[in-house]
Task: structure prediction
Amino acid sequence: MARSAGEPGPFRGWSPDALLFFEALSADNSKAFWSAHRERYEREVRAPMLALVAAVADAYGTFHLFRPHRDVRFSKDKSPYKTHLGAVTEGEGGELYYVQLSGEGLMAASGYYQMAADQLERYREAVVDERTGPELEAIVAALERDGYTIGAHSELKTAPRGYRRDHPRIVLLRRKGCIASRSFAPAKWLATSGALGRVTGTWDAASELNGWLNAHVGPSTAAPEDAW
Result:
């Protein structure tokens, strides 16, 4: 059956020119460059990303592609364009699935990136609980041994209010999120359909982490205006 107009084709990876585009944008982050190379961005960067998220939609859901323009209102860096393209979706339990392409290569991540206030309260209670805290600690340690980076949108410099600074799981307590990620440097496989396996492999590796987070934290129940 023929594809309808605008429907993404099969995912075949990103050509080397996709990375070269971001390298050039980093060197000349201007409206003039963007306008001159917009078609190149759509063809070499965005179209393959659309094909990738379409390929995994049945398993992971509908993805949102982030816009290329930066919000510079509160930033000292007034560069108008992002030097990467990211896409994200949320699982039924509240976990996120994220993929990003930049001049440095491919990155995939999954977990809870930025917890709302009510999520943080549940998360911290579960971290200090002697039944559930050591379980998360073991999950995180195993991921780190396998080469995954555990991080968050932000973390405190010290213990949260009401928690001991010398708590044995203080590193976990200081985080305002918990996400596993893996970065892949540019390689020949990036220009093939095999790049998809690197992404889904990272997401699958985070399944135990996401299971813990979904069971003990879950989606925010706060009103939208109070969520962050």
About this structure: The chain has seven helices and six strands. The mean pLDDT is 93.
